[in-house]
Design goal:
Shape: rod-shaped
Helix content: 55-70%
Strand content: under 5%
Largest sheet: none
Number of strands: 0
Distance between the termini: 81 Å
Oligomer: single chain
Number of helices: 1
Order of helices and strands: H
């Protein structure tokens, strides 16, 4: 009967980013887009 060891991936030398950083970046980008859309709508309606 063969013995199997648990497969382990090679770790990078540098520190890896925490997975929460990805959701934080997405949240910042979505909020920036929403602010840009809001400002666009305000400027569009201010001229007419």
């Amino acid at each position: 009967m063969a013995k199997f060891k648990a497969a382990r991936g090679r770790r990078k030398a540098g520190p890896s980013r925490p997975p929460a950083a990805v959701s934080c970046v997405v949240l910042v980008l979505v909020s920036m887009v929403l602010v840009m859309i809001l400002l666009y709508e305000v400027i569009k309606h201010a001229n007419g």
